Amino acid sequence: MTATNLQDTTTLHNGVRMPWFGLGVFKVEEGNEVVEAVKTAIRNGYRSIDTAAIYQNEAGVGQGIREALQESGLRREDLFITSKVWNADLGYETAIAAYEKSLQLLGLEYLDLYLIHWPKKGLYKEAWRALETLYKEGRVKAIGVSNFQIHHLEDVMKDAEVKPMVNQVEYHPLLTQQELLTFCKQQGIQLEAWSPLMQGRLLDNPVLSDIAGKHGKSVAQVILRWDLQNGVVTIPKSIKEHRIIENAAIFDFTLSDEEMGRIDSLNEDRRIGPDPDNFNF
């Protein structure tokens, strides 16, 4: 089922409902910039905010959430908040401590989703045990991973008591990760796209421009629509109100099968982020 509005959700394999669309805050500056971005997104109908310990803006995200709730009359449970444990904290005790620190900075009592940020060799399985503990204790609603390839997922699931609910990866028309998407669908793991717009590098693409022109939409809107029609949760980043609004205005048109295929065929297996198999910071 494709989302029909900004508040539509996908149901994770544990029954938790996660919005199809949200705001990412990678590289959004701590302080007023991130506070205002979060408030602007929530004011304009977004219900999902995605941050991470390494972004160093969790305190500002938390402030933005509190102010937005106060202004809107929404409740905490109306929102879906995600953060991630960084590589330096990928032990059992250290991952639990990192979760506590993220909660403290955000000023929240729980997270909706907590992810292992990268599959650092030899460490992510201990961290996964920690996330399972947090989940079983009811301290986080859902747990998952980020930047995991198929072999990483298989490695985790071999010993896991709880299967990851989400895998957040770099995903855009030049990196369609078709095998990974198929695998995750087969396993009931929700794929989520980070950097869906390839940090703006796709906006002049002639194929995407042609499709966008036919629908009277922007290239960014076409890409984000393609995400949703592929069953991929998406979290574009922006700090500008008009762009935050525009990015979410994708529920009034549908890409045809032919258009979806043309976008799929743009794949070059090209990353702008690190290769998960060789990223050990």
Automatic annotation (TrEMBL):
- Highest taxon listed in the record's lineage: Bacteria
Q: Which PROSITE patterns match?
A: ALDOKETO_REDUCTASE_1, ALDOKETO_REDUCTASE_2, ALDOKETO_REDUCTASE_3
- CDD domains in UniProt: AKR_AKR5G1-3
Could you tell me the keywords of this UniProt record?
NADP, Oxidoreductase
What Pfam families does its record include? Aldo_ket_red
> NADP-dependent oxidoreductase domain location, by residue?
32-268
Q: Which PANTHER family match?
A: 2,5-DIKETO-D-GLUCONIC ACID REDUCTASE, NADP-DEPENDENT OXIDOREDUCTASE DOMAIN-CONTAINING PROTEIN
Give the UniProt family note: Belongs to the aldo/keto reductase family.
The protein here is known as Aldo/keto reductase
Q: What taxonomic ancestry is recorded?
A: Bacteria, Bacillati, Bacillota, Bacilli, Bacillales
